[in-house]
Backbone:
């Protein structure tokens, strides 16, 4: 990743927006970039590298997910250009609480925990951006728990299509791991929505035809 690309990426991150150009340039020299082919693991749950890092997606798509003992997956969130992940481990220095891998060819910038904490001590205003990010994470997790425990599958799928900007190009298997159901249920529900004229199933994509009705279904219990 070129220096100019690193600058632009760091400027997108709420953590570092208050920093001067000089500090951004210094931070560019302190971070490292890694590339991952599709399906490659970035870290695993419980992994403790001894120096956790804040991860920022430069390109591609990264998913963060949990695995049950019998191998079932629950996707917690997808991240794309400019998104941060592994924030928890970066702040508390503990093991990663979930797994992360590359959905497609991806480039990820890593900000070592030591560097992040030094910056926050010197520039407390960074904490405001950090709080905003963490509050957004908490809202998302609260919504995910609500969906999995209180909503029907059809409502969960509609909600995924409404709220997730990347969902229109997800495979049905990926959708299944995000809403906590079987791929067959995803297929059946998508075709039901298509038959109602709410969506159209294109080649590898979902096209929303009736956003108002899709929102109504998403809001239903």
Residues:
């Amino acid at each position: 990743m070129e220096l100019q690309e690193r600058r632009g990426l760091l400027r997108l991150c709420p953590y570092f927006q208050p920093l001067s150009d000089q500090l951004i340039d210094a931070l560019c020299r302190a971070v490292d970039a890694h590339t991952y082919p599709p399906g490659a693991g970035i870290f695993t749950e419980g992994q403790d590298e001894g120096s956790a890092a804040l991860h920022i997606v430069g390109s591609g798509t990264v998913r963060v997910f949990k695995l049950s003992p019998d191998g079932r997956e629950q996707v917690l969130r997808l991240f794309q250009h400019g998104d941060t992940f592994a924030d928890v481990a970066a702040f508390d220095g503990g093991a990663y609480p979930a797994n992360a891998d590359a959905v497609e060819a991806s480039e990820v910038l890593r900000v070592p925990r030591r560097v992040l904490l030094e910056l926050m001590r010197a520039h407390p205003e960074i904490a405001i951006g950090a709080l905003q990010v963490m509050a957004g994470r908490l809202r998302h997790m609260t919504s995910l728990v609500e969906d999995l425990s209180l909503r029907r599958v059809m409502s969960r799928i509609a909600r995924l299509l409404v709220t997730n900007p990347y969902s229109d190009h997800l495979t049905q298997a990926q959708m299944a791991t995000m809403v906590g159901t079987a791929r067959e249920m995803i297929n059946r529900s998508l075709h039901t929505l298509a038959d109602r004229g709410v969506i159209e199933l294109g080649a590898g994509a979902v096209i929303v035809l009736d956003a108002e009705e899709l929102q109504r279904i998403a809001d239903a219990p």
Notes: The mean pLDDT is 88. The radius of gyration is 19 Å. Residues 75 and 174 are 8 Å apart (CA to CA). The first strand starts at residue 32 and ends at 36.
